[in-house]
Amino acid sequence: MASGLNRDPIIILRMDGEDLRTFVNNESFERDIAFILSKIEISGGILKDYIIAAFEKLSVDQGMPPAKDPWVMSNILEPALVSMGDNILLPASQDTFLVEFKRAAECVAEHLKEQPAIVAHSNTTFDGSGIKRFLSSKFELDKMLYSASKSIPRDENGRISEEHFTDALEFLAVSAGLPPLGLDSQMDKIMKDTVKAFLTGDSETLTEEDFKKLLETIMLQLEANPVAVSINSVVHEQITCSSSALQKSPQ
């Protein structure tokens, strides 16, 4: 990750299902899960689809390692769902979802007890300072802006698509202290909305100065409203540090 970010130290979490059980047994569980369900957009899905989508929205604070991680999916989530039988293959309704998701969470907690997930956890705040530092380094700025502007494909009329312009912004992201697309939905929205607004003009005359203005626009948004991002990565290698370095998920 680029410098110029307000970043907390990385904490290694040993997730053994205990915190997930606490979340499931909390009096706010049904309210929290109903809210998560309202954010899931699946048309005509079965219970299994909704359950997986809900696990993907849980955080380490709620005792769930990143559900999209291939190791978590193959070693924890899929075996837990298989053990639930055919009920999760039925059409979804809110009442059946709440019952079956709680059952699924208990199964996941049991699998985590048998095979804990080791997760590297950190919090990073994107506040525009990385972009400011990048813009102040003329040599690096000129070099990266030149590379970005020359790398974008154009159509037969010389125009640039939104997709390719976004690719160029992602090319600049690391140097400018921005996260890669896909890391955080709020940061994705800021970056993509800025690109859309920028392309309402005449993209046929796009210059390196235009890229600079784009970055400045994002910087001003982040300075006014910094975005805090929780980053969680499953550690697949054997941990060699002492057990005292392994902590429970943050409360």
Please give the count of helices.
10
Question: What is the terminal separation in angstroms?
Answer: 25 Å
Give the fraction of residues assigned to helices: 40-55%
Fraction of residues in β-strands: 5-15%
| Sequence stretches where pLDDT stays below 50 over 5 or more residues | 1-5, 238-251
Counting helices, strands and paired strands, the structural category is: alpha+beta
Globally, the shape reads elongated
Strand elements, count: 5
Element-level helix/strand string? EEHHHHHEHHHHHEE
Largest sheet: 5 strands, mixed
User: C-alpha Rg, in Å?
Assistant: 22 Å
Task: Determine the mean pLDDT.
Answer: 82
How does this model look, in words?
The protein has ten helices and five strands; from the N terminus they run ββαααααβαααααββ. With 251 residues, it is an alpha+beta fold. Strands 1, 2, 3, 4 and 5 form a five-stranded mixed sheet that branches. Helix 4 crosses helix 5 (94-114), helix 6 packs antiparallel against helix 10 (208-224) and helix 9 (185-198) crosses helix 10 (208-224).
Main traits of this protein?
single chain; disordered N terminus; 11% strand; five-stranded mixed sheet; 251 residues; 51% helix; alpha+beta
